[in-house]
Amino acid sequence: MHEWALAEAVISTILNVAKEKGAKKIIKAEIKIGTLQQIEVDVLTFAFRELVKNTPLEKTEIKLKPEEVYFKCRVCGVRWNFSNATSALGREKSEAIHFIPDLVHAFIRCPRCGSPDFEVVGGRGIWVEYIKISK
Ligand SMILES: [Zn+2]
């Protein structure tokens, strides 16, 4: 059920920003969702639809966009993304990673030097990317 908590947090962020900017209307908001995050987009979409009722966001176009995961090797510095990494794995393993993000270090290796010592530089969390308002 953490989708509801996330949707609530995102909505209050948008409302705060809109208030700060003196917005009369919030036309559009774009939300980025890290693909490594364990989020059910359907549930999140539903949560938004329910939670914006009777708020200034009721008529706002809310777009949810996935944010690709990037990895950066701590040894050789090469960057690569989740699709590159998982195309080398079987389907079952990629799904396991989607469900349990901590597994990335168990399955994924640097494509250049083979090191398991890398960091995740994108695709985590959920945030408000863009808000369009009218004054
Ligand atoms: Zn490397």
CATH topology of the largest domain: hypothetical protein PF0899 fold
Largest sheet: 3 strands, mixed
Lateral arrangement of strands in the main beta sheet: 2-1-6
Please count the helical segments: 5
The CATH class of the largest domain is: Alpha Beta
Number of strands: 6
Overview of the structural elements:
This protein is elongated. With 135 residues, it is α+β, with helices and mostly antiparallel strands. It contains five helices and six strands. It folds into two domains: 2-68 and 123-134, 2-Layer Sandwich (hypothetical protein PF0899 fold); 70-120, no CATH class. Strands 2-1-6 form a three-stranded mixed β-sheet, with helices on one face. A three-stranded antiparallel β-sheet has the order 4-3-5. Zinc ion is lined by residues 73, 75-76, 78, 110, 112-113, 115. Residues 73, 75-76, 78, 110, 112-113, 115 line the site of zinc ion.
